[in-house]
């Protein structure tokens, strides 16, 4: 059974496969410190160029560059002493660090899959974890990650064996341990119809060229080491001159990876790390299974989810004015009536005042990802107040502005309650009107808590500060449910 829930499709492995370099025009205008491809660049990329760092955004200055000092140019090193970066054919890396980079496919960067182009808005997703690699016996790569996001941490397990690629996610604390499995295949360049890609081979570094010997800062472990700099296309690797251990890798639109002890461990990976399909991907496993057949193998479908008729959910979306059973004589009575319907849904709930704004935003992130976009299409067509009025990117920006507006107001100031209550109304509206019945049932079974509506109708004082006015304006948008569910005109409580 497939879920219609469009939670995130999760972080893919950050292995920087040695693909052919591509001239994409460097659309973000990155300088030669952040990006310097071994091909298509003139003059050619040299030592202490293209070394990168910890990126946070697309602008050229949205990166904390590491330090780099040239120790020796290529002509100053005896070529017979050079050891190309060693990947190893069978190893365990108990701890590594990375920033995964890829196209922005969802507003919270849960779904980050490295691409062969830097065009468009990109995600920069830091995470850390373990890697297990065995191309001698298992022919597989397994990764266990703790991935950070702006709405909490997602624990991810990845297994790539043969043509199959499995991603199992455990969502943040506010999702009550909900699991998701995605069963898919990796294709050349990420394009449908292209050839399948298997786990990266251990000899992929054979095609790299020596760029120079450098004293380079190693992110996350706060060390500076003399390492050999190698490159192939946009891919750069730094290895120990004496052993060839691959310590650092950088690709400006795929990511940064730090292996403190290299990828040539003597510790053999446990065989059970490569057993697939994972049980959670099989029928009866994870709460949400995407593109998995009953045995847990990829179905090969090109869409992320099957289209199911909206039925009653669609009919309700077309009904602009709710029935009398869903309306109240005042704002307070409206809230009481709607809270009663939330109880009828048998979903976990608690009073709005018991939430803080961070918790509500995290819940809204989950609801936004779980929504059925076809419902919002109906609301947008009808200019219905239930429509989502801004993109998630715009909402994120608006939320940041509201946080700034509230700064300087002590905790007792009514602006805080208005701010929180507005988020409660918006979260409830999204839950009730943007999720289909079966997804609501999943939420109920998973124990995700939904806020109840506050009965208080906030109003903005005539002498409100600019910051207070911004919060008031946002609140008025968030409580638009009162225009249909309340039988009375808006009144201040």
Structure description:
With 493 residues, the chain is of the alpha+beta class. The chain folds into two domains: 238 residues, no CATH class; 174 residues, no CATH class. It is built from nine helices and 17 strands. A 13-stranded mixed beta sheet has the order 3-10-11-12-13-14-4-5-6-7-8-9-15, with no helix packed on it. A two-stranded antiparallel ribbon has the order 1-2. A hairpin with a 2-residue loop joins strand 7 and strand 8. Helix 1 runs parallel beside helix 4, helix 3 runs parallel beside helix 6 and helix 6 packs parallel to helix 8. The longest helix has 21 residues. The chain is globular, with a radius of gyration of 26 Å. The relative contact order is 0.14. The N terminus and C terminus are likely disordered.
Count of alpha/pi helices: 9
Low-pLDDT runs: 1-22, 302-307, 489-493
Percentage of residues in DSSP E strands: 15-25%
- Sequence of strands across the biggest β-sheet: 3-10-11-12-13-14-4-5-6-7-8-9-15
Task: List the secondary-structure elements in sequence, H or E.
Answer: EEEEEEEEEEEEEEEHHEHHHHHEHH
User: Shape from CA axes?
Assistant: globular
Calculate Rg over CA atoms.
26 Å
Summed over residues and divided by their number, the pLDDT gives a mean of 82
Say how many strands there are: 17
What's the end-to-end separation, in Å?
A: 48 Å
Work out the helicity level: 10-25%
Count of domains: 2
Indicate the structural class: alpha+beta
Please give the largest β-sheet.
Answer: 13 strands, mixed
């Amino acid at each position: 059974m497939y879920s219609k829930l469009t939670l995130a499709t999760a972080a893919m492995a950050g292995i920087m496969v040695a693909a052919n370099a591509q001239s994409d025009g460097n659309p973000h205008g990155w300088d030669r410190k952040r990006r310097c491809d071994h091909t298509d660049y003139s003059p050619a990329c040299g030592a202490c160029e293209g070394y990168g760092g910890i990126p946070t955004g697309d602008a050229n200055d949205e990166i904390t560059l590491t330090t780099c000092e040239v120790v020796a140019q290529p002509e100053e090193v005896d070529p017979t002493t050079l050891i190309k970066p060693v990947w190893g054919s069978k190893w365990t890396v108990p701890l590594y660090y990375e920033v995964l980079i890829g196209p922005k496919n969802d507003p919270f960067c849960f779904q980050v899959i490295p691409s062969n182009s830097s065009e468009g808005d990109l995600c920069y997703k830091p995470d850390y974890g373990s890697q297990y690699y065995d191309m001698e016996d298992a022919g597989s790569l397994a990764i266990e990650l703790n991935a950070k996001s702006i709405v909490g941490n997602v624990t991810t397990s990845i297994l790539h064996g043969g043509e199959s690629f499995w991603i199992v996610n455990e969502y943040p604390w506010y999702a009550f341990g909900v699991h998701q499995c995605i069963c898919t295949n990796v294709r050349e360049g990420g394009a449908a119809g292209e050839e399948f890609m298997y786990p990266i081979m251990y000899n992929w570094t054979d095609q790299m060229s020596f760029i120079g010997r450098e004293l380079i800062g190693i992110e996350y472990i706060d060390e500076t080491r003399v390492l050999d700099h190698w490159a192939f296309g946009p891919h750069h690797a730094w290895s120990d001159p004496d052993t060839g251990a691959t310590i650092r890798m950088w690709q400006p639109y795929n990511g940064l990876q730090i292996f403190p002890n290299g990828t040539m461990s003597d510790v053999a990976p446990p065989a059970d790390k490569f057993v697939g399909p994972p049980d959670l991907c099989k029928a009866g496993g994870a709460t949400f299974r995407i593109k998995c057949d009953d045995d847990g193998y990829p179905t090969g479908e090109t869409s992320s989810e099957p289209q199911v008729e909206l039925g009653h959910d669609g009919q309700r979306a077309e009904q602009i004015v709710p029935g009398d059973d869903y309306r109240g004589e005042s704002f307070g009575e409206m809230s009481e009536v709607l809270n009663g319907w939330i109880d009828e849904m048998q979903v976990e709930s608690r009073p709005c005042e018991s939430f803080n704004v961070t918790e509500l935003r995290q819940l809204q992130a989950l609801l936004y990802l779980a929504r059925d976009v076809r419902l919002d299409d109906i609301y947008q067509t009808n200019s219905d107040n239930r429509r989502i009025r801004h993109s998630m990117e715009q909402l994120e920006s608006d939320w940041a502005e509201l946080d700034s507006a509230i700064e300087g107001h002590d905790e007792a100031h009514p602006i805080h309650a208005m701010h929180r209550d507005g988020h409660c109304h918006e979260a409830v509206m999204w839950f009730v009107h943007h999720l289909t019945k079966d997804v609501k049932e999943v939420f109920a079974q998973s124990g995700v808590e939904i806020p109840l509506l506050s009965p208080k109708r906030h109003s903005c004082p005539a002498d409100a500060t600019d910051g207070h006015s911004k919060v008031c304006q946002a609140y008025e948008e968030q409580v638009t449910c009162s225009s249909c569910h309340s039988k009375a005109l808006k009144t201040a409580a």
